[in-house]
Write a structure and sequence with these properties.
The protein is α/β, with parallel strands linked by helices. It contains 27 helices and 11 strands.
Length: 657
């Protein structure tokens, strides 16, 4: 297959966009679209390879798989091995166990499924997952496994040959429709999984099937190329991570990549120069090595110095190139057979996978720090100490609420509405020792969603839909008391000026649009409007004779407590400053929201529950118990065992009618 410099240049654009986005260059806020460009290129090249060989009766599916593995797997093994060795030396067991799990998933090309299943409010931040970027390799490999089988089947069944294009168009349209429909409802699934990404690769394949070999005029080719580059540039420069993705917006970079490929201008000035070709040739290596740098800077709390990050990336690439050159110089004079090469590669794969499995199943190898195995085990237990049923919360695939109910008596009913902070209260009443015998409790919650109407999240389920349905349920009049509990404050803090907006942030529903306004005055106005809407809904609930209770914010830490303790134990540092939370500092950060909630309570004649008053002393709030064990799962969620202790007796009044 002839080399096409403009496709290599397209790779350079794609990987540069992704790196600039992850290194947080604000002007490349849509750089994540580079992955979509990669998918188009992959679909085009795979279709060309398969169809050309099928036409010449030289296609072998095993050769195809072997070629793909030869291109992808060695570098992936090198990446996973490097991260595992690095983690052994410098990463504490909690995160190291996660690295082992994700390395196994990456090596078996199911990491996109694993990351999808992990996605949620209690999941770690994306910049703490060292191998998160391998999701795209997994999706691409899954496409490689299925796609040639479909094309071979079409060719084998004579009647289907004439329908090859319509069949692929049907697959393209079905995948695209699924993507557009699923993104607002199941955003994580749409982002990570193949069924909602396949259309991007099929788009490249359709370019080959329709346009390969057809002459195209020089003038028309320039127009197509310019339009394609312009579409990609618009996506990179104007899109941002707050947009639901991929959805219909991904059509722009996908179309742009298709147009550049269709133009077939290998001698174009933008792509045929040495720097662009070099970046294109190294695009795969750049892609797989840049993300651990992003995570490393975040993990070690280093300032995000972009020149330093770029220099480190160049250094890693140079080291990788040096190792590759040494290996090539020391190749035996007699070239090894295919079986020998496969055996060496298989041994490397097996060794890396075995190490990853040992790390994962060995809980991050806590024995690396002598005498601290039990403390690491307790920290791991703390992170998993929650008992809200997975069958509850949020909306189901049909948009219906998924409530959790407690109590079998026929007494008054209490409805608790909120986010994960409402969910953590569940532990107080789920335990037989604390369950209220007469009352029936119903929890309607959604992780990461405030109970305020018209307020959404850019990467979550439709939080505004959840809030509307939850409040509508409260308005049915079937409850003696309605309780609203939430983390509150973080939802309503505008992004800092001049910074790239967070991928997961608050948006406000205006008509059919979810607006992510960053200007503080406009942002505050939208918050006022949202709480005015909440006030109207709560007043309607009160008019039915239903009591309303507002739970103010629970005390929380700035950092993930269990992870921070693990880091310090691993490094031999003191945790003395993690024993308590500065009450004055916390109250200062939450003063505006507390004032807003207390004003709302006065206007609708609601009761107020202040956790800080019960959980904190005059100056501090404890973060560890008397044994020195953490009371929190992370930075803001209390452990279920802590919720059940007498310190949380103040919550009993919520259900005590």
């Amino acid at each position: 297959m002839s080399f096409r410099s403009e496709i290599n240049g397209l790779r350079a654009i794609a990987v540069a966009a992704v790196v600039l986005f992850h290194f947080r260059f604000t002007w490349a806020s849509g750089g994540f679209t580079g992955v979509d460009v990669f998918f188009v290129i992959s679909g085009y090249l795979m279709t060309k390879i398969i169809c050309s060989r099928l036409a010449n009766d030289t296609f072998s599916i095993w050769t195809f798989y072997k070629d793909r593995a030869r291109r992808i797997v060695p570098a992936l093994i090198g990446l996973c091995a490097f991260v595992l060795v690095f983690g052994y030396l410098f990463v504490e067991p909690i995160t190291y166990a996660q690295i082992g799990k994700h390395a196994l998933a990456a090596l078996t090309f199911v990491s996109n499924v694993v990351f999808y299943r992990e996605s949620g409010y209690f999941d770690a931040r994306s910049d703490s997952k060292w191998l998160l970027h391998t999701w795209s390799l997994s999706a691409e490999w899954q496409f490689y496994m299925v796609y040639p089988l479909i094309l071979v089947l079409i060719r084998m069944v004579g009647r289907l040959r004439r329908w090859q294009r319509p069949i692929l168009w049907a697959g393209f349209l079905l995948s695209l429709a699924t993507c557009i429909l699923a993104t607002p409802i199941l955003p994580q699934a749409s982002f990570f999984l193949l069924p909602t990404r396949a259309w991007e690769m099929l788009a490249g394949g359709l370019v080959f099937l329709h346009l390969e070999g057809r002459p195209i005029g020089a003038g028309r080719a320039r127009v197509l190329e310019l339009a394609g580059l312009g579409a990609i540039a618009v996506a990179v420069l104007t899109f941002d991570g707050t947009m639901p993705w991929p959805s219909y917006r991904a059509l722009l970079p996908v179309l742009g990549a298709c147009l550049v490929i269709a133009a077939r201008r290998p001698n174009a000035l933008w792509s045929s120069n040495l720097p662009v070709q070099a970046v294109g040739r190294w695009s795969y290596a750049i892609y797989i090595w840049h993300w651990p740098i992003v995570v490393g800077f975040a993990y070690f709390d280093l300032p995000q110095n972009r020149p330093a990050m770029l220099a480190l990336l160049v250094g890693l690439l140079a080291g990788w190139a040096g190792l590759s050159r040494i290996a090539s110089r020391h190749r035996p004079a007699v070239r090894p057979s295919g079986w020998t090469t496969a055996g060496i590669g298989g041994a490397g794969f097996a060794a890396t996978a075995l190490l990853a499995g040992l790390v994962f199943l060995g809980h991050g190898l806590p024995a690396r720090v002598p005498g601290e195995t039990s403390r690491f085990a307790e920290l791991e237990a703390a992170r998993n100490d929650g008992d809200y049923p997975r069958s509850c919360g949020g909306l189901d695939n049909f948009g219906a609420l998924r409530p959790c109910r407690l109590g079998s008596g026929d007494g008054p009913k209490v409805l608790v509405i909120g986010d994960s902070h409402a969910e953590m209260m569940y532990a107080r009443f789920a335990d037989d020792g604390h369950r209220m015998p007469r009352e029936r409790l119903e929890f309607i919650t959604a992780n990461g969603c405030s109970p305020v109407p018209t307020v959404g999240r850019t990467t979550s389920i439709r939080c505004d839909v959840f809030a509307e349905k939850a409040l509508a349920q409260a308005e049915t009049g079937g409850y003696a008391r309605v309780v609203l509990a939430s983390i509150w404050t973080p939802y309503f803090v505008p992004p800092l000026p001049g910074t790239m907006p967070s991928v997961d942030r608050t948006c406000f529903i205006v008509g059919e649009r979810c607006l992510t306004e960053a200007a503080p005055d406009i942002f505050e106005g939208r918050v006022d409007a949202a709480f005015a809407r909440l006030e109207d809904r709560l007043r309607a609930i009160r008019q039915q004779g239903t009591e309303v209770v507002l739970v103010l914010p629970f005390p929380r830490m700035k950092d993930d407590l269990t992870l921070e303790i693990a880091k310090r134990i691993f490094r031999g540092s003191s945790i003395a400053d993690l024993h308590t939370i500065d009450r004055a500092g916390f109250e200062t950060r939450n003063a505006a929201m507390e004032a807003r909630l207390r004003t709302l309570a006065r206007r609708v004649a609601a009761q107020v529950v202040d956790p800080v008053a019960s959980l904190c002393g005059p100056e501090t709030c404890p973060a560890l118990d008397a044994r020195g064990y953490p009371l929190y799962r992370d930075s803001n969620h209390f452990r279920a065992t802590a919720i059940r202790t007498d310190r949380f007796r103040f919550l009993d009044g919520i259900a005590d009618l």
